[in-house]
Design a protein that fits this description.
The structure holds three protein chains of three kinds.
Chain A (H helix, E strand, L loop, with lengths): L5 E4 L2 H18 L4 H21 L1 H5 L2 E11 L2 E7 L1 H28 L4 H20 L3 H19 L5 H32 L17 H16 L10 H4 L5 H35 L2 H21 L4 H21 L3 H32 L10 H4 L1 H15 L6 H14 L3 H27 L12 H19 L7 H13 L4
Parallel strand pairs in A: 1-2
Antiparallel strand pairs in A: 2-3
Helix pairs in contact in A: 1-2, 1-5, 2-4, 2-5, 4-5, 4-10, 4-13, 4-18, 4-19, 5-6, 5-10, 6-7, 6-10, 7-8, 8-10, 10-12, 10-13, 11-12, 11-17, 12-13, 12-17, 13-15, 13-16, 13-18, 13-19, 15-17, 15-18, 16-17
Chain B lengths: L1 H6 L1 H19 L3 H23 L24 H32 L4 H11 L3
Helix pairs in contact in B: 2-3, 3-4
Chain C lengths: L8 H16 L6 H27 L2 E4 L10 E4 L1 H28 L5 H20 L3 H20 L5 H30 L4 H7 L7 H18 L8 H7 L2 H27 L1 H7 L2 H21 L4 H21 L3 H32 L11 H4 L1 H15 L5 H15 L3 H26 L25 H27 L10
Antiparallel strand pairs in C: 1-2
Helix pairs in contact in C: 1-2, 1-4, 2-3, 2-4, 3-4, 3-10, 3-14, 3-19, 4-5, 4-10, 5-6, 6-8, 6-9, 7-10, 8-10, 9-10, 9-13, 10-11, 10-13, 10-14, 12-13, 12-18, 13-14, 13-18, 14-16, 14-17, 14-19, 16-18, 16-19, 17-18, 17-19
The chains are: A mainly alpha, B mainly alpha, C mainly alpha.
């Protein structure tokens, strides 16, 4: 059944971008009254989520909200389009922002962090940029928000203002600004080839005659542009370094918003700029598949030998982001479904794990895996949630990770590329190898922690909730936001229905 | 060839002046001599314009009141001359500003020699 | 009133102000600043009127004394000159407002009248160069502007006369080369009127004198524009000049040279002559490309904000030169847009540098520390925004310059130039973030984590007064607003300002 989507003009996509941006002055003005300030953050979060959810009903009836604000560069509009993929990503980011906001409050107050106002203000800007990325109707708009995200994340990365943090900030900027430059080169080139930059399902370059050399160069430029944020090896090394940031930043930005923007960019470039046909015709999919597989394996091994908990999580993130890239590279509709589901599900699982790491750090001041002996007895809820997230990332039911991995594996088989199924299984085993020892240490070893009881409720409640959410989504993927249905819709738009 | 060389003797002379001016400007260490070089350079350009408009046997381009056929070949082109009046003014102004600056430099650094000046500039350099 | 009679107003207003200020202020010295402000406002106002007029009815010529060209001197108001003159006078207006107080701080009271008179004469020169349609007239304005600039530089700190003298030597040689080029051109064409020359040139054989004329003019104007390797005068002049001078000459001075090159080579000589017959455009593009890298690299090595900005100017002028040299419509629009964008960015940055000097007594990078973010939050924010614009972060103006220039390089399939433009924005990031880190983060030695309880270094605000802050912030704001207006500007003005042949 093919249903052609109709579009309607709506302010909602713009409002989702503006709502957190509008909260910034309020946050700054109420800097002397922390409770009011945090209220603005939460209010903006709730409003943002409500706005994104309000797009859902019409989207499911194949009606897409669009908004055109006029030309931003000649021939290209500053335009928003809340298509299935965009709404999908916006839903993930905005719902998890809400969890993170509550958690952040507990975290920064627990540590008595300095410059909390700056922290919350830039967090809001980052979320605005992420919404802009999700709803961009064309490459130029995408780049604008992508670059804003780059800059707005910088103050969060260096938040601690230690020498280590400043160095991490430099590295982060060096990687991401370079990427932005590649992206601009790629976009301008695309513009000259196609005459416009609108994202079209199936590829805006589909009908352009290409030479293989041109196609490869252009695709490589694009991949360098979006691959840095997607942490594809060898462009990943900023991510573990950026773990110098406070944990909620790592949780939302380095597991959800920033890195997922990169992966989202890979999907946009792969399927909406080039399109499956071009990818197949010029064998560009091999570039995606090879780099993604190598990243998955290497990053898993690196995670294995990393003792710092957050850095281990970071390497795990690197690996899991490449799952999504792999799903795009397989160019089959079940694989894409798996990709998108992993985009959502990895976010819920990884954010749980980061929340746990943060809670342990705030409560017990422990950062290393080797110090975690017996933590499970002190913080049973936290470590329980950690176990849930780990099981999910390994790919065992009932946590949601199994579903996305299942779809990816199915996609590999459907595309007649069983090699990648093997890689997926191998990586699952590696996941188990670097996550389960942590759980083992926490619950089955005795250790001196010096403290009793859980961390503050503001932190524990969000992390338990995200853990429960991960389980619920694993059992019932259409729960609430209909992730499965939207992901299915994206696949339908691009491939014309799941075979 | 020789005809070409001789025929353009004025221009060779001007070229020589230009080079002398630039030489003074670049090679001479004394600031005043640099300004002299600058002036020679400017004079060469002025002469170039004048030379380009001059011709043998032509006269001053002033029309008498009784009507006669104007033969442009009989007059010297007046335009470059008038232009050069302005250029001379510019040159004078430039020299004036240059000497004012030199006086200022001498008051502050007590030297007009470029090498010494550079040394004294370096002494001032904050750590 | 006949619209064409408004054409020569901007340069004439400045000229009269330049003469009037020293006379009036013999008695009332404090009036100088106000007179200059009035004149600049009027000139900016008339520039805007002229621009609107030219957009409505096309090219408007103005003949001085009613003499018909090629005998008389002609001013040409077309979209190109209307655009550049408006940009320059609006920037000048902002800088003059700022100068109103920074002059008080950096220059002795007895020197205010001559100082403002020279500023007015400098702007006369700048406006005249933009408006004139006559080769020799352009030379005269070039020298008026330059001579007053030498004076403006020399009233600065101790080393400023030396910098001014060096600039004088190079500038005069540049002017001389240009004049010599005009002489050769006159030999070949027999005319000094630009429109006339444009009509005559296609009928002429390309001979040695014509090539010599082109080359000499390129060198002469290249010195004024500070194209690599003719930029030698620029770093010292920008560094040692007093803050108001740097602020007015950095956004305007080099742009005038760039405009003159665009006007003479692209409009008068024509694309065919300078790309296919004599490779002037290619030479300009390559020199600019080298200049971009050279300027950026040297900017990284500087320890004084003004000097860093000076080298950055060498690089940014390279953007303009590169855009022109690409000789296609994207590159040309990019170059024109960058004339404006870079003017705004540099004005903002130099105003901030001036604010620092005023309040801190220096503008050395290694002596900045994170007390600035508390003591001068707005200046620091303006600097940061302008720095982001220099790097080319959307939606600031810098991004759009980069966008057009990138389009231009790809359209002419010159991947090396594309790489240079993009690389340079990363180099910009390196040297600007060095300053930003200094301004916002505690530097070495204070690596232990600060908590809320530990006292901040300096809490009291030392921000500069409103008169200084307002122009700075307006420039900063303009960096974003103009960014969003870029399509409108390009569509309504710049596409009409393209030379024939694209």
């Amino acid at each position: 059944m093919m249903v052609n989507a109709t579009t309607y003009t709506s302010l909602v996509p713009l409002l989702t971008v503006l709502v957190s941006l509008g909260a910034v002055p309020l946050i700054i003005l109420s800097s002397r009254r922390p409770n009011l300030r945090e209220f603005w953050t939460i209010a903006a979060g709730v409003a943002k989520l409500a706005l994104v959810v309000s797009l859902l009903p019409s989207l499911l009836r194949h009606r897409i909200a669009v908004l055109n604000l006029g030309e931003i560069v000649p021939g290209v509009d500053l335009a928003f389009k809340a298509d299935a993929l965009g709404v999908f990503f916006a839903l993930i980011a905005s719902s998890l922002w809400l969890f993170t906001s509550f958690y952040s409050i507990g975290y920064v107050r627990g540590l008595q962090e300095h410059k909390q106002t700056r922290y919350f203000a830039y967090f809001a800007v980052c979320l605005s940029a992420t919404m802009g990325i999700a709803f961009s109707a064309n490459l130029a708009t995408f780049i604008i928000f992508y670059e804003i995200l780059t800059i707005a994340t910088y103050p969060l990365v260096i938040h601690k203002e230690t020498e280590e943090a400043i160095k991490a900030g430099r590295k982060y900027l060096a990687y991401t600004l370079t990427a932005g430059v590649f992206l601009i080169a790629a976009a301008t080139w695309t513009y000259l080839l196609a005459g416009h930059l609108d994202f079209i399902p199936g590829g805006l370059l589909k009908n352009i005659p290409f030479e293989p050399k041109t196609a490869w160069s252009l695709f490589t430029l694009f991949l360098l542009g979006v691959g840095v944020k997607a942490a594809i090896m060898p462009l990943h090394s900023w991510l573990p370094t950026a773990m110098a940031a406070p944990t909620p930043v790592s949780a939302l930005l380095h597991a959800v918003a920033v890195v997922k923007s990169g992966v989202f960019g890979v999907i946009r470039v792969g399927l909406f700029v080039f399109g499956p046909e071009l990818l197949r015709r010029f064998h560009l999919d091999y570039l995606l598949l090879t780099s993604a597989s190598l990243t998955i394996i290497i990053a898993s091994f690196l995670a294995l030998k990393e003792d710092n908990l957050k850095r281990r999580l970071a390497y795990s993130t690197v690996a899991h982001l490449s799952y999504i890239v792999l799903g795009v590279g397989l160019i089959s509709s079940p694989a894409l479904l798996g990709s998108l589901l992993h985009l959502a599900f990895h976010a819920t699982m990884k954010i749980t794990l980061f929340f746990c790491a943060g809670a342990i750090y705030v409560h017990l001041h422990k950062e290393k895996v080797s110090e975690l002996d017996g933590v499970g007895h002190v913080m049973p809820w936290t470590m329980g949630a950690f176990a849930v997230g780990s099981i999910g990332l390994v790919g065992l039911p009932p946590v949601n990770g199994w579903l996305s991995k299942w779809c990816l594996g199915w996609g590999a088989v459907a595309a007649a590329r069983p090699l990648y199924l093997i890689i997926l299984i191998l990586s699952g085993l590696l996941n188990a190898a670097y996550f389960f020892p942590i759980i083992y240490r926490a619950f089955f070893r005795q250790g001196e922690t010096g403290k009793t009881g859980e961390a503050s409720l503001l932190m524990v409640v969000p992390l338990v909730l995200t853990a429960i959410l991960s389980i619920l989504l694993g059992v019932w993927p259409d729960l609430g936001f209909k992730f499965f249905k939207i992901a299915h819709e994206v696949g339908r738009v691009i491939f014309g229905g799941v075979s | 060839m020789i005809k070409f060389l001789l025929g353009h003797y004025a221009y060779w002379f001007i070229l020589a002046l230009l080079v002398i001016g630039l030489y003074g400007l670049i090679i001479k260490r004394n600031l005043v001599k640099k300004v002299i070089g600058l002036s020679i350079f400017q004079v060469a350009i002025i002469l170039f314009f004048i030379a380009s408009s001059t011709k043998w046997g032509a006269t001053v381009p002033v029309l008498t009141d009784h009507q006669e056929v104007i033969q442009s070949a009989a007059y010297i082109n007046p335009l470059p001359h008038t232009l050069m009046l302005t250029a001379i003014v510019v040159g004078v102004a430039t020299s004036g500003v240059a000497f004012a600056l030199i006086i200022l430099i001498y008051r502050r650094y007590r030297t007009l020699n470029e090498n010494e000046l550079l040394e004294r500039l370096k002494e001032d350099e904050p750590e | 009133m006949n619209p064409s009679s408004l054409v020569p107003f901007p340069p004439l207003i400045y000229l009269f102000a330049g003469i009037f200020i020293p006379l009036v202020t013999l008695r009332w010295r404090r009036l100088a600043g106000w007179l200059a402000l009035t004149a600049t406002t009027a000139a900016a106002f008339f520039s805007v009127i002229n621009l609107l007029q030219v957009l409505k009815q096309g090219i408007i010529p103005y003949r001085f004394g009613g003499w018909i060209p090629p005998i008389g001197i002609e001013y040409i108001l077309d979209p190109l000159s209307g655009f550049v003159i408006t940009v320059i006078n609006l920037i000048a207006l902002g800088v003059i407002v700022h100068a109103h107080q920074s002059v008080k701080a950096e220059i002795k009271e007895s020197r205010w009248p001559p100082y403002y008179a020279l500023v007015m004469l400098f702007l006369t020169g700048a406006n005249g160069i933009i408006m004139t349609g006559d080769f020799f007239n352009l030379y005269v304005f070039l020298e008026i502007g330059s001579l007053s600039l030498y004076g403006l530089i020399a009233v600065g700190e101790k080393k400023s006369p030396v910098a001014a003298f060096r600039y004088l030597v190079m500038g005069t040689v540049g002017g001389g080369f240009y004049l010599l080029g005009v002489g050769f051109l006159y030999l070949v064409t027999g005319s000094l009127n630009m429109g006339d020359v444009r009509n005559i040139l296609p009928h002429l054989q390309v001979t040695a004198p014509l090539v010599v004329a082109l080359t000499l003019m390129l060198i002469g104007l290249g010195i004024k524009m500070a194209v690599f390797p003719l930029h030698g005068w620029l770093p010292d002049a920008y560094t040692y000049a007093p803050s108001p001078t740097s602020a007015i000459m950095a956004p305007i001075g080099t742009k005038i040279g760039a405009y003159a090159i665009a006007r003479i080579f692209f409009f008068i000589f024509g694309i065919r002559l300078i790309t296919q017959i004599v490779p002037i455009a290619q030479v300009l593009a390559w020199l600019s490309a080298v200049g971009i890298i050279y300027g950026s690299v040297l900017a990284m090595a500087q320890n004084e904000i003004k000097r860093m900005l000076a080298y950055s100017s060498v690089a940014q002028v390279g953007y303009i030169g590169l855009g022109l040299g690409l000789a296609n419509s994207f590159g040309f629009i990019g170059a024109l847009l960058h004339i404006m964008n870079h003017g705004l960015m540099k004005a903002c940055l130099f105003l901030v540098a001036g604010n620092f000097r005023l309040k801190l007594g220096h503008s050395r990078i290694d002596r900045l520390d994170d007390s600035l973010r508390r003591s001068m939050p707005w200046s620091a924010a303006a600097f940061t925004l302008a720095a982001l614009a220099m790097i080319g972060v959307p939606p600031t103006v810098g991004f759009f310059s980069k966008w057009y220039l990138a389009l231009g390089t790809i359209a002419s399939r010159n991947w090396l130039f594309l790489a240079i433009i993009l690389l340079s924005s990363l180099l910009n990031a390196v040297y600007f973030f060095r300053v930003i880190e200094r301004m916002y983060f505690p530097w070495r030695g204070s690596s232990q984590k600060r908590t809320l309880s530990s006292p901040a270094p300096k809490n009291e605000s030392q921000e500069v007064s409103l008169g200084l802050l307002l122009p700075t912030l307006i420039f900063a704001l303009a960096l974003i607003v103009v960014g969003f207006l870029n399509v409108w500007l390009v569509k309504t003005i710049l596409t009409k300002a393209l030379p024939a042949g694209f």
